């Protein structure tokens, strides 16, 4: 069959399975789980893929799963991803009462779109006519939360990295992948758009900080103590004093929070904890800003005679776009909407862990509306499930067909034209280099 016929057939099967796709999407929304704890979501996704007759590997990074389809004809491998975890937003009306977890990120929509893509490509038999294979991957732990819990997993040797895609790269699950794609929910009402292709985003480093002072009675003998909370407050002010040195085009964002301010009000705080991200548009800018933040933290401790321990943790790399993949997706999206409904290019100050993958291989990461409210807030809600899940499933299935049809000529060209910023080795070396503990 020709490409257009394959696309129509794949989309027809997605429509046929629409109720099943949306049931899975809603079921995942109703059972939110945090990163590296996604047992329900893993079983849910794996079960659907097994129903399609695919062999599924579970627990690919503690949780998560993967299944491969096609490959009868040799060619490139395309990964279609969906993220399994939720975010913490306790004020959201649908948040889990015990964990605060809720899909105020739209990851359940991603998973629905990924599974819809699988339904379309597998049930239509389109893969038999394509050169290459497709992997469907349920990815754990995209949200960078519960750092203490993940530190414990790391100490136990269960994970190497806090982020799920980082862990997949490290474990070799993406070694045989040539192109990676997924979608992300995003309310574009203010933009007057339905789809955004080619988003770019900041990367970041994580920082866990402990200020150590000296206890003393806060009323009777404060002069005998060393106030670690004062050290932290000074450090935050020092960070603020650095902000005018951050170049606007680098979109540097530093936003520390104090996670422990002391023990009791009647004792001079001697054990104060802080967490922060240092975000930026390029790796070089992040490292430069991080050095300034580290200086600011040291100076806060020095000013009051406290000690400080700074634990730098690899975050996510900046998100890079691939214009060839963006163009293919856009051409397919116009089958379902007007061209003026599609925004081409936008830069986010937030971060996405697919940014790490974008430094090693071509990636596709369009943002799709069909939701209302800002991500990660109490206002985030599903709105139009056809737009949020079904249309992107069709667009991804059609894009896979574009890539792997005609002897995978399109995919081969994109891979050949791609110039990676990092190799897997240099990527892992960099992650090791930025992971360090500083004491002062």
Overview of the molecule:
With 440 residues, the chain is α/β, with parallel strands linked by helices. It folds into two domains: 3-201 and 318-427, Zn peptidases (Aminopeptidase, 3-Layer(aba) Sandwich); 214-305, Alpha-Beta Plaits (2-Layer Sandwich), CATH 3.30.70.360. The chain has helices at 3-16, 18-30, 39-51, 107-123, 147-155, 164-171, 228-242, 283-304, 323-333, 354-358, 385-404, 409-417, 424-434, and strands at 56-61, 63-70, 77-83, 87-88, 101-102, 133-139, 179-181, 184-185, 195-212, 253-254, 257-260, 271-280, 307-314, 342-351, 363-364, 367-368, 371-372, 381-382, 436-439. The strands form four sheets. Strands 8, 9, 10, 11, 12, 13, 14, 16 and 19 form a nine-stranded mixed sheet that branches. A six-stranded mixed sheet has the order 1-2-6-3-7-15. Helix 1 (3-16) runs antiparallel to helix 11 (385-404). It is elongated, with a radius of gyration of 23 Å. It starts with a helix and ends with a strand. The mean pLDDT is 96.
Biggest sheet architecture: 9 strands, mixed
The CATH homologous superfamily of the largest domain corresponds to Zn peptidases
Question: Helix proportion of residues, in percent?
Answer: 25-40%
Strand content: 15-25%
CATH architecture of the largest domain: 3-Layer(aba) Sandwich
Question: Would you state the CATH class of the largest domain?
Answer: Alpha Beta
Q: Spans with pLDDT under 50 lasting ≥5 residues? A: none
Radius of gyration: 23 Å
How many angstroms separate the termini? 67 Å
Number of helices: 13
**How many DSSP-defined strands?**
19
């Amino acid at each position: 069959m020709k490409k257009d016929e394959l696309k129509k057939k794949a989309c027809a099967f997605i429509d046929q399975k629409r109720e099943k796709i949306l049931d899975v999407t809603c079921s995942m929304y109703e059972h939110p789980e945090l990163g590296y704890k996604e047992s329900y979501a893993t079983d849910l996704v794996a079960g659907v893929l097994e129903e399609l007759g695919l062999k599924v590997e579970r627990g690919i990074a503690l949780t998560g799963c993967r299944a491969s389809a096609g490959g009868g004809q040799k060619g490139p491998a395309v990964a279609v991803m969906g993220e399994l975890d939720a975010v913490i937003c306790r004020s959201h009306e649908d948040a889990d009462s015990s964990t605060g977890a809720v899909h105020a990120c739209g990851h359940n929509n991603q998973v629905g779109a990924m599974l819809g893509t699988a339904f379309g490509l597998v049930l239509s038999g389109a893969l038999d006519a394509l050169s290459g294979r497709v992997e469907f991957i349920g990815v754990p732990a995209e949200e960078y939360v519960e750092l203490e819990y993940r530190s414990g997993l790391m100490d136990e040797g269960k994970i190497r990295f806090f982020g799920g895609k980082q862990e997949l790269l490290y474990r070799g699950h993406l070694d045989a992948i040539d192109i990676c794609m997924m979608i992300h929910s995003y309310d574009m009402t203010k933009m007057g758009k339905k789809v955004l292709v080619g988003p770019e985003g900041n990367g970041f480093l994580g920082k866990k900080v402990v200020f150590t002072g000296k206890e003393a009675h806060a009323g009777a003998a404060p002069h005998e103590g060393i106030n670690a909370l004062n050290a932290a407050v000074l450090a935050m002010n020092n960070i603020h004093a650095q902000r005018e040195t951050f170049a606007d085009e680098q979109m540097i964002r530093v936003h520390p929070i104090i996670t422990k301010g002391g023990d009791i009000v009647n004792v001079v705080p001697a054990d104060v904890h802080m967490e922060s991200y240092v975000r930026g548009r390029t790796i070089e800018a992040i490292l430069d800003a991080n050095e300034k933040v580290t200086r600011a933290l040291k100076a806060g401790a020095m000013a009051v005679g406290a000690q400080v321990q700074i634990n730098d943790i690899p975050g996510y790399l900046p998100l890079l776009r691939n214009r060839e993949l963006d163009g293919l997706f856009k051409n397919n999206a116009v089958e379902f909407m007007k061209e003026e409904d599609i925004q081409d290019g936008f830069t986010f100050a937030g971060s996405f862990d697919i940014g790490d993958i974008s430094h090693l291989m071509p990636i596709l990461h369009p943002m799709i509306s069909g939701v209302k409210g800002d991500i990660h807030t109490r206002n985030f809600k599903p709105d139009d499930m056809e737009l949020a899940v079904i249309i992107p499933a069709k667009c991804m299935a059609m894009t896979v067909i574009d890539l792997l049809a005609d002897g995978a000529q399109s995919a081969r060209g994109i891979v050949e034209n791609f110039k990676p910023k990092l190799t897997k080795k240099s990527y892992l070396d960099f992650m090791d280099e930025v992971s360090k503990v500083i004491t002062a």
